[in-house]
Amino acid sequence: MQQLEPAIAQFIQAQNSHDTATALAFFDPEAVVLAQNQVWVGHAGILSWQQQQPARLQLEITAVRRHCGEFYLQTRWHSAVNATADCQFVFALQDGKISRLIVQSQST
Questions:
Q1: Cα dihedral sign for 28, 54, 22, 2?
Q2: SnoaL-like domain spans which residues (predicted)?
Q3: What's the pLDDT tens digit per position in 41-53?
């Protein structure tokens, strides 16, 4: 699997540890998250997005691809009740921080 940039790897580790404050630290203060047909901007908006995520999910990376400076991660969310959902995360970085994250649910 391709090596992830530190901000992305540490964000995923913090997400899996359910450490919202640490996960937020890897975003640029003006970053944008596009997920669930909504847009969240800046740390306050991204914190709101994180707080809306179901509790205790674990994110498994199944494939990584880099294209035109962006990282495309195929992922699978695992819940405590063994339910799974496939998603694609698209990260853009600027100055070592996440500047944009697009989360796309995938049909299975």
A1: negative
A2: 9-100
A3: 999 999 999 888 7
Number of domains composing the chain: 1
**Residue 31 resides in a domain:** yes
Beta-carbon contacts of 101 under 8 Å, excluding residues fewer than 6 positions away, are 27, 31, 32, 33, 34, 35, 89, 90, 91, 92
Dist. CA 13–CA 30, nearest whole Å? 22
Question: Structural domain of residue 19, as residue ranges?
Answer: 6-105
CATH of the domain at 62: 3.10.450.50
Going by the DSSP 8-state scheme, the letter that residue 1 receives in this structure is -
Paired tokens of 101 = 């994250």
